[in-house]
């Protein structure tokens, strides 16, 4: 079963962390990725740039209209994701719980099963 | 011989050679690497210079040499080994392939790893093929397979005790998983999936040839054949699901049905009765009806009752509710479903919701059925199923 483990970040929460705490997050992700590669459960992971660098594209009357900023007017934004192939939803949740972000007050990690896939993996 | 023909031959021979090698030297991991290398050498050489007279012996010799090379780093030793042809042990192939299957289903492995390793070592599929079938990158599958091999080694893995009887249920389960992966085209294009179902059937035949008297082995094979027979009728040209009751039964594969029915019948004669036999008997009862309306629901219901008793499982109860509704009307079925609501594995499950929606529709409760179809559609992880449920809901409007 394939799951997307989605990390929602809140820049304000992250900014409030100490340097040491930020470093611990980085180390935690490093170990997490190693473990996932070893178990063969990691398909891919991607981290996204800060939401302030996002652009939203809308096509109106056939004309693209591009505005700066993220789609949602929210405190939390998509920061990145892990794409994993695991045996069960329970396992995906177990993995998500090991992501450092999940342990930070004000943050959480979302787990969603993949319903349809197309693209490189099928080549 | 052309490339594809050589590939077929290798797919057939490599598991036999691996089995013989593991029997002789133990250490699955090293043997597997050696056989892969020998297979690689063969796939390069044979299409060019022809297949040797004794291809299995050739592979045995080359793989043994690779294995010995790897084990003994001492140069002088290695040269001597490569000059002296290692004797080719003549061991009954089928026996070893079966032992190999039992080894790959090592209890120390997760079901996903057992499946991957079985397809590679026993099915003769390449890592790339297995990765494609499971829609994960080759690297991911390679990591999973190599991890599985390490774990077998750590668990002191050589062949299981000769009888292997206690591991048979795991083997059957793995074959069932492989078959289901091929059968339920849950995501992506269906390209490689039928091959997977066919491979599961081939392996089940292999086990059946060795253990023809085992009712569960016959039952599983029968279940696979009867299910596989419906393949062409299961989806529309556009890829939408066609439920059993609406399938064009003339599109079922008659040969597979006939073979599956005979096997299902014979499996029920075995001393012990198990879940695969019962599921095969249910599938046979469906196959026995010329039209959906002629289905012997009394028998289907009775079989689900027994199945529920020997292997209790909410899915079985759900299926029993469907059969009961056919026998005694939708209200009776809905009453059984009410009992399932308390089961946390089932509450909100799309199968429960879709069955309830269907029974509500039959009971004439259109509004409730509509809501239920919509909830079921949101709950499924299969796009084809979601489309099917959405169209059911739309029909009610």
TrEMBL record, chain A:
Residues in YCII-related domain copies: 1-114
A Pfam family matched in the record: YCII
InterPro entries: Dimeric_a/b-barrel, YCII
Organism domain of life: Bacteria
PANTHER family: BLL7171 PROTEIN (PTHR35174:SF3), BLL7171 PROTEIN-RELATED (PTHR35174)
Family to which this protein belongs: Belongs to the YciI family.
Record's protein name: YciI family protein
Organism: Actinoplanes oblitus
